[in-house]
Design goal:
The complex is a heterodimer of chains A (118) and B (107).
Chain A lengths: L2 E5 L3 E2 L5 E8 L7 E7 L6 E7 L4 E3 L7 E6 L4 E6 L8 E8 L6 E4 L3 E5 L2
Parallel strand pairs in A: 2-11
Antiparallel strand pairs in A: 1-3, 3-8, 4-5, 4-9, 5-6, 7-8, 9-10, 9-11
Chain B lengths: L8 E4 L5 E6 L9 E5 L6 E4 L13 E6 L2 E6 L8 E9 L3 E4 L3 E5 L1
Parallel strand pairs in B: 1-9
Antiparallel strand pairs in B: 2-6, 3-4, 3-7, 5-6, 7-8, 7-9
Classes of the chains: A mainly beta (118), B mainly beta (107).
């Protein structure tokens, strides 16, 4: 059974960079795609972007200028960097697996709350 | 981006059938997924590619897609079905769109 676990700081200051890592266990990262999805408190889901096992990335146009997603298959991890954060970036961040670029989002991490505040 | 419209809330009597809709322009030409999210938990996929149920999802959950509307149908609604439900599509295989979500209340 594939499991995904997010990790990283729960508090980030405005204008700084939000950095999260997702560790994948119970399966290989090869042949799959890996996304980040976030959910502000009390609101809906927003897709941030994905990266393939080979390192090809695609981002939500609304966040593209501030986002980088990377992958390290040797560690079974992929990461999210979101630069120049504001309070609007406060959200629960989920890491997600999908089988190919346009596949259903079949496995989700439990999510981690990141608060942007000074 | 591709806009998906969901009603904010739907209520259903215990044991009855709930129908949750997801509207989008010619959504019939897209593969629609549905996710269930209970408070404090991560979303769980309950329907993929319009009408398919992942392993472990009860047969009470079914999906359909026609014209400009995709529908998630939950028969014999139970208290445990109370949750937020989100529809999702891929736009041009490069962008994930989510509906705004529907809060299902079982009365």
């Amino acid at each position: 059974q594939v499991q995904l676990q997010e990790s990283g700081p729960g508090l980030v200051k405005p204008s700084e960079t939000l950095s999260l890592t997702c560790t994948v266990s119970g399966g290989s990262m090869s042949s799959f795609y890996w996304s980040w999805v976030r959910q502000p408190p009390g609101k809906g889901l927003e897709w941030i972007g994905y990266i393939s096992y080979s390192g090809s990335a695609n981002y939500n146009a609304s966040l593209r200028s501030r986002v980088t997603i990377s992958v390290d298959t040797s560690k079974n991890q992929f990461s999210l960097n979101l630069r120049s954060v504001t309070a609007a970036d406060t959200a629960v961040y989920y890491c997600v697996r999908h089988g190919w670029s346009s596949a259903p989002l079949d496995y989700w991490g439990q999510g981690t709350l990141v608060t942007v505040s000074s | 981006s591709y806009d998906l419209t969901q009603p904010l809330s739907v209520s259903v009597a215990l044991g009855q059938t709930a129908r949750l809709t997801c509207g989008g322009n010619n959504i019939v030409h897209k593969n629609v997924q549905w996710y269930q999210q209970k408070p404090g938990q991560a979303p769980v996929m309950v329907i993929y590619t319009d009408k398919n149920r992942p392993s472990g999802i009860p047969e009470r959950f079914s999906g359909s897609n026609s014209g400009n509307t995709a529908t998630l149908t939950i028969t014999r609604a139970q208290a445990g079905d109370e949750a937020d439900y989100y529809c999702q599509v891929w736009d041009s295989s490069t962008y994930v769109g989510f509906g705004g979500g529907t809060r299902l209340t079982v009365l």
